[in-house]
Design goal:
Chain lengths: 284, 587
């Protein structure tokens, strides 16, 4: 990561924004996440061209176009798979994946589990508003069971998906919750997450003012940065399962084996010498 | 493709071995193939298995020759049965006739009715009694000795092959095995088969390789730096082969959680600049289709090798069929121009996979390389293949870190060729967001009529304008021919042999083997076939290639198809009569 370099020029948050204005609704929590992310990148003084920002589909997945970095707006649910390929091929890059709760926890659920399990050095930002916004208000895996919608007039009756619990069980080495309405806390969490070597889940409560106007009240419910950091998964499990979802901070951070590019570590021979030995092995 | 051997039909020795789980029929086959190669000859080996994961009955079919041989024989000249457990499963793969010699272990079971009824000469030997006299030996090694003696394979070639296969288990194992081989060689002194002794051995270097390995090698030569895959029969061998060499070449392999992930991993790695591929088969390809469309729309180079098996659904995973052509051509949603390429035999899989990867890089798009279980899993002794002298590579902007091009760089710039310079992460001032939505030249999402039309056209134009050279087809024209046979993939070698035989007997038939199936070189093909009677031969039930060629107006409207479903590969002998019948009807 280029934080180890002696900074020649201190970057500013606006250096990382593109000229495009987000498609998000006025008041959407995602604006504040965009801002916190650019602040974190500036704080870390990362070179723009060495950042890969990958997303899937959904309101939040529009993020890459709004930053002046190498972005990829892929298909629904597969941001983490795409990010994993990018990170393995280009270990020199800072790789960030971003998306929403439907993208990451429903259609992308399997990739979420296995990205945690690989614990590659990727930061995963989930902008969780407990609703499918782009398709105009259907219940997502993190919606409350009794939330009424057109698609589920009586609510889904299903318990909420617990992303942080799943991440812990699956092997992620950094697990945090942030709130879009807490720019300073969120910037701190994102900075720590990007700096952390391993898979970092940053689950961010981000109100959808259009389809979940009641989420505007989250402001009153949140208990900001009140979590005690631990490297002990048992303690982390207690904190994650003990929280009603309104506590923010870093719940878990541990030094765990990171899946890395094998080739980057050792490559003793030139391509032509390697090719020669590969072809020699085919001889009768 | 170089081929120095021009005989009409290669001389051939067809041997098969079968046995129940644990008897080691496959080991005998692998050692025999290697030993015959060491003796200076060529050959191929196919396998058939029962449904068990491990320990089920299995059979190997070997064909030996004094020249490279990819086709299968009409019948097995020598069959060795280590036992008869569930032999009926292999009835189709191991045809026995009155000209076959069947040697079998006779201490336990009599030959089944279908063997008795074949009219083959039956010879029972008590293999169990022999192994009892050699401590630690196994009946498959005695059988190896019997087959070696029958085909005239000298002892020291067997020993060298055994050393290579079993050497790491220690010299004692090799010595015990050789004692059993010796016992087998001494058992039957009659050698009714006209064997290897009649052929001139070569001392040239040769490769022992499967088609799946050939695809792996070709992509390595093409500069492969990344592979991701999810296990699926019969494609997994490709990535298993790549696991070590890819790392040796500075690349990486990622075991994906599913095929959806594998395809997206490939796209991510390729976006980062690594020439990338995945390997799968029909069901896995179905799961990759959505992301394959992303590679097309976002213009990311990506190679997908699909090794066809019997379908639809789970179908017949371990056997061959050419029935996923429609899937490779049409499965993507939207107008999604891409390349579909197929090698015509095992040997050329090396060069054609190198070409396919290079084309994906040069054209910044999806290339589907279509092979099948037969091409992929048949092991073959072949002449080494020279690397294709290709100079294709990904077009990149000229790096100029001082220029303030950030607002000006247009990733999807409209160019004459349709190919836009593609920057890679790390190149300062060339940041952009790759986009699967319809977009503008700079990559910004757009739903405007003009942007949509412009970029659809750009992406089809870039693959249509490209000069693919001579590799698009293998042509074997005949002077004054009024008949042309067209085929593709694993059917090619059998069709070629059948056509050569008919031409030798006085017919005049031209043959075209298609490698570049999409974009179809329709004008070139139409020019070649416009005054011809055309027969399209393919191994599927619905004549997929034939319908495609007709729809593209690449062949005359009165063209016919000979389409038969798998899972058995065409043998040249299967095709003589259908071609003759078609010619009689079409003169």
């Amino acid at each position: 990561m280029s934080v180890e370099k002696i900074p020649v020029k201190k970057a500013r948050p606006n250096d990382y924004t593109s000229e495009h204005h987000p498609v998000w609704c006025p008041g959407c929590g995602h604006f504040f996440i965009l801002r916190a992310l650019t602040k974190a990148l500036a704080w870390l003084n990362l070179d723009k061209e060495n950042i890969g920002l990958v997303s899937g589909i959904g309101c939040s997945s529009r993020l890459p176009a709004y930053l002046d970095v190498y972005g990829f707006h892929g298909v629904h649910g597969r941001a983490l798979a795409l990010a994993s390929g990018l990170k393995l091929a280009r270990p020199d890059l800072t790789v960030i994946a971003a998306g929403g709760d439907g993208d990451g926890y429903s259609i992308g659920g399997n990739h979420f589990i296995h990205a945690c399990r690989r614990n590659m050095d990727i930061t995963y930002i989930v902008m969780d508003n407990e609703v499918y916004g782009m398709t105009k208000g259907q219940p997502s895996p993190t919606s409350d069971p009794d939330w009424h919608s057109k698609l589920a007039p009586k609510g889904t009756g299903l318990a909420r998906f617990n992303p942080m619990g799943i991440a812990l069980a699956s092997g992620a080495s950094f697990i945090a919750r942030g709130f879009s309405g807490d720019p300073n806390g969120l910037t701190k969490i994102l900075t720590e997450a990007i700096e952390h070597k391993g898979f970092s889940l940053v689950e961010i409560k981000s109100p959808c003012v259009t389809f979940r106007p009641e989420q505007k009240d989250w402001h009153h419910a949140m208990r900001l940065m009140n979590v005690t950091l631990t490297a002990n998964p048992m303690e982390a499990a207690q904190a994650i399962y003990g929280s009603d979802g309104f506590d923010t901070g870093i719940f878990f951070q541990a030094d765990m084996p990171v899946y890395e590019a094998e080739a980057a570590n050792e490559k003793p021979h030139s391509d032509s010498a390697s090719m020669e030995s590969i072809e020699k092995a085919l001889l009768v | 493709m170089p081929n120095h051997h021009q005989q009409t039909v290669p001389p051939r020795l067809a041997v098969s071995i079968s046995g129940s789980g644990g008897t080691g029929a496959v080991t005998v086959g692998l050692i025999l193939l290697d030993a015959v190669a060491k003796a200076g000859f060529y050959g191929n080996m196919t396998r058939a298995f029962g449904p068990q994961i491990r320990g089920g009955e299995s059979a190997v079919m070997l064909h030996f020759s004094d020249q490279p041989i990819e086709t299968l024989a009409e019948f097995s000249q020598l069959h060795l049965a280590l036992d008869w457990v569930k032999f009926d499963r292999f009835e189709d793969e191991i045809p026995l006739t009155a000209d076959s010699l069947v040697i079998y272990e006779n201490s336990r079971e009599k030959p089944p009715g279908l063997v008795e009824n074949s009219g083959a000469t039956l010879l029972g030997v008590d293999l169990q009694a022999i192994v009892k006299t050699i401590k630690g030996s196994r009946i498959n090694m005695v059988a190896l000795g019997i087959v070696a003696q029958q085909i005239g394979l000298a002892r020291h070639f067997i020993e060298a092959a055994l050393q290579k296969t079993l050497g790491r288990k220690g010299s004692e194992v090799v010595e015990t095995s050789m004692a059993a081989v010796d016992a087998g060689m001494a058992l039957l002194t009659d050698t009714p088969l006209s064997g290897l002794a009649n052929w001139q051995p070569t001392h040239q270097p040769r490769w022992n390789m499967s088609g799946n390995e050939a695809c792996g090698l070709g992509t390595l030569r093409g500069g492969l730096k990344f592979a991701a895959a999810y296990p699926i029969t019969p494609a997994t061998d490709i990535v298993e082969y790549l696991a070590r060499p890819l790392v040796q070449m500075g690349g990486n392999l990622l075991i994906a959680e599913d095929e959806l992930a594998a395809m997206n991993m490939v796209i991510g790695a390729s976006f980062g600049g690594a020439p990338s591929m995945t390997a799968t088969s029909g069901p896995g390809l179905s799961l990759m289709i959505e992301a394959m469309g992303l590679a097309v729309a976002a213009e990311i180079p990506a190679l997908v090798i699909t090794v066809m098996r019997g379908g639809p659904s789970t179908g017949i995973p371990t056997k061959s069929e050419q029935s996923d052509l429609n899937q490779a051509l049409y499965a993507l949603h939207g107008d999604a121009p891409h390349l579909v390429i197929a090698p015509l035999n095992i040997q050329e899989s090396v060069n054609i996979s190198q070409w396919a990867l290079a084309l994906s890089e040069a054209l910044q798009t999806l290339v589907i390389l279509v092979t099948d279980q037969h091409l992929g899993q048949t092991r073959m002794i072949m002449d080494p293949v020279d690397k294709l002298p290709l100079t294709l590579s990904r077009l990149q902007p000229k790096a100029d870190p001082t220029a303030d091009t950030a607002v000006h760089y247009q990733r999807y710039q409209i160019t004459d060729s349709g190919i836009s310079p593609m920057s890679l992460p790390g190149m300062g001032s060339y940041q952009y967001a790759a986009e699967g939505l319809t977009h503008t030249e700079s990559g910004l999402p757009s739903s405007r009529v003009q942007d949509h039309a412009q970029h659809l056209h750009k992406r089809s134009h870039k693959i249509l304008q490209f000069d693919y050279g001579e590799l698009w087809a293998q042509r074997l024209p005949m002077a004054n021919a009024q008949h042309t046979v067209i085929t593709w993939g694993s059917s090619f070698e059998a069709v070629k042999e059948a056509v050569k035989l008919l031409n030798h007997r006085g017919a005049a038939i031209s043959l075209i083997g298609l490698r570049l199936i999409m974009p179809l070189q329709a004008e070139a093909l139409a020019a070649l076939t416009q005054h011809q009677k055309v027969l399209v031969i393919e191994q599927n039930d619905s004549a997929q290639l034939s319908h495609y060629l007709l729809a593209e107006k690449a062949i005359p409207l009165d063209s016919e198809a000979y389409a038969k479903p798998g899972p058995l590969l065409f043998k040249p002998s299967d095709l003589i009569r259908p071609i003759q019948t078609w010619m009689e009807d079409r003169t």
